[in-house]
Amino acid sequence: MTADRELRAETFINASPEVVWAVLTDLKKMAEGSPELLTMIPLLPGGLRLGQTYLGINRRKAVIWPSRNVVSAFEPGKALAWDTKTSGATWIYELSAEDGGTRLVHRRPVLKKLTLLSKGFAPVALGGNEEHADELEQGMAQTIFRIKTAAESAAHAASR
């Protein structure tokens, strides 16, 4: 396996795409669902939207680092993506209605090459490029499981 491979996690959620979207786009809570992200700070006014830039603060064990992220897809109920300029990766969430619920796919393709900063930082601070990619993919599975749990809880509460 290589560090610049596409990482992927997916799940079926017993909630509508609108409910899943509401959970997914609550960026204040996004850090609760991610093992590596501490916070996403908007750098421009206007909230979550296409072109919005965020400063991500990430942590792995004792290492903390910033990332610059630009929202590259924003289709309510369907897709959310951002390009991480500091690493060269793109983080994509895709939602589709399926069997009365939502299929959520979380992907991290590397559409361009990983940046030199990313290639140099991971071996020194994160235990290696391939090891960090494996860890990221496991973290993506944890993230979508937490989104699933929150969305299904919200859908259940709304149906009462």
From TrEMBL:
<dbReference type="InterPro" id="IPR023393">
    <property type="entry name" value="START-like_dom_sf"/>
</dbReference>
<dbReference type="InterPro" id="IPR019587">
    <property type="entry name" value="Polyketide_cyclase/dehydratase"/>
</dbReference>
<protein>
    <recommendedName>
        <fullName>Polyketide cyclase</fullName>
    </recommendedName>
</protein>
<dbReference type="Pfam" id="PF10604">
    <property type="entry name" value="Polyketide_cyc2"/>
</dbReference>
